[in-house]
Amino acid sequence: MNQNIIIIDGSYNEGGGQMFRSALALSVLFQKQFKIINIRSNRPNPGINNQLLNQITLITKIIKSEVEGLKLGSQEFSFRPLEKFIPQDIVCPAQTAQSITLILQSLLPISINTQKQISITIHGGTYLNHCPTIEAWSTIFVPIINQMGLKCIVNVLKEGYYPQGGGLIQAVLNPIKNTLNQLIKKEFTKINKLNCTYLLGSPCDIQIFDHQIVNDLKQYTENGQLIINSEIKIVNSKKFKKCYGISLMSHSNLNSYDYTIINDSDKSIEETLVNVINYAKQQLEQQTCLDEHHQDQLILLMSLAKGKSEILVGKPSSHTESLIYVIQKFLPECLIEFEKTNIKDNFIISVQGVGYMFE
Ligand SMILES: Nc1ncnc2c1ncn2[C@@H]1O[C@H](COP(=O)(O)OP(=O)(O)OP(=O)(O)O)[C@@H](O)[C@H]1O
User: Fold this and answer.
1) Regions in the chain scoring below 70 on pLDDT
2) Atom of ligand 1 at shortest distance to CA of 317?
3) What is the predicted pLDDT for the residue at 97?
4) Distance between CA 306 and CA 327 in Å, rounded?
5) Is residue 294 within 6 Å of ligand 1 at its C-beta?
6) Using one digit for the tens of pLDDT, what is the confidence trace for 161-187?
7) Are 172 and 139 in contact (CB under 8 A)?
8) Ligand 1 close to Cβ of residue 17 (< 6 A)
9) Among 26, 45, 95, 257, which is least packed by CB within 10 angstroms?
10) What residues does CATH 3.65.10.20 cover in the chain?
11) What is the pLDDT of residue 3?
12) How far is the CA of 5 from the centre of ligand 1 (A)?
């Protein structure tokens, strides 16, 4: 390992696995060696956990590299890439309820290429706590990255829930034209449509719950008109007999937001619904263009894009803050600024991308 190694303090701010995934992606793209210390030291089970181990192992299988510290519980890890991504189809094998979207989060930046369409097949969980659901990924994140020139299609072949997993998806990533486009998302418009998925232990009449959601959220529309499309997915889990969670998303003519709540333990639909509606209200009050979890997920791609991206968000999240720390370690020339707007606690985050030329 040489002296130009980039050192990342994994305990910075949020201190979660996302810092690790992002550092790994930037390391592969820019062929820069890095070492991360204090890995997940803010979490109750510090060090590399099973989920992170699977994500990193997958990348070390695809990218020829020199690696130190890749084991369960390890609090230090060093990585030296020896090559860039060679466009190829990727299959990520079954590991109970590993998060499919967090695997996509680690694979996506490195697998963008200009040469050929690739397919990414992943087994695991599609609706899990503390990470994006595959529904939010497909209907919110993917349309946004499409605007950045990254055409991606996600097919959910089978849903997977905690703790068994068993889900299966296939993502198809089309080649891009050299660079990603900048992203501008600064215009707030009121919502007019909702999509709701009730994740339940058994079927029930959901009409009354749909009415409650519409009644509580129609104050955030322009004219009181709010269409709801809802469905039930039956979750076969010994742990969740009543309600596993509720995935609620809202859409305006320009923007989409995710308010999903996946329960930690079995709860009634009524209790889960109150939590989801309160969460939605809190976010809708904010009048932003992105919900709190989509701000951090886009920043890495914005830092690679050509030109200045700007997004209207609420208070920058700790995930965002720690991600910016990682990006600036690899790309000190990438200027990232926060400008307070005169609405509530909103900010415009602007990112002067480095115009990374994909191969
Ligand atoms: N409830 C949620 N809904 C949607 N996205 C979420 C939610 N919670 C977290 N995320 C997103 O999922 C990612 C999780 O990153 P995080 O650093 O917390 O990593 P992790 O790999 O799950 O590890 P850890 O076990 O360290 O928390 C982030 O992009 C974050 O914005």
Assistant:
1) 1-3
2) 31
3) 82
4) 16
5) no
6) 999 999 999 999 999 999 999 999 999
7) no
8) yes
9) 45
10) 85-177
11) 62
12) 27
Instruction: Write the residue with the smallest CA distance to atom 31 of ligand 1.
Output: 293
Structural tokens at position 239: 């742990």
* Token duo for residue 325: 């720390």
Fold of 179-186+287-359: Ribosomal Protein S8; Chain: A, domain 1 (3.30.1370)
> Is residue 13 exposed (0-12), middle (13-18) or buried (19+ Cβ within 10 Å)?
middle
Q: What is the DSSP string of 28-88?
A: HHHT--EEEESTTTTSSS-S--HHHHHHHHHHHHHS-EEEE--STT-S-EEEEE-S-----
Give the model's pLDDT for residue 173: 98
User: What is the pLDDT at residue 138?
Assistant: 97
Instruction: Give the relative orientation of helices 207-217 and 269-285 as an angle to the nearest 10 degrees.
Output: 20
Q: How confident is the model at residue 4, as a pLDDT?
A: 86
Tell me the CATH number for domain 1-83. 3.30.110
- Superfamily for 85-177? RNA 3'-terminal phosphate cyclase domain (3.65.10.20)
Helices 100-111 and 50-62 cross at an angle (nearest 10°) of 30
100, amino acid identity: I
User: Which ligand 1 atom sits nearest the alpha carbon of residue 43?
Assistant: 26
**Hey, what are 281's tokens?**
């209200």
CATH number assigned to the domain covering 189-285? 3.30.360.20
Q: Is 16 in the pocket of ligand 1 (CB under 6 A)?
A: yes
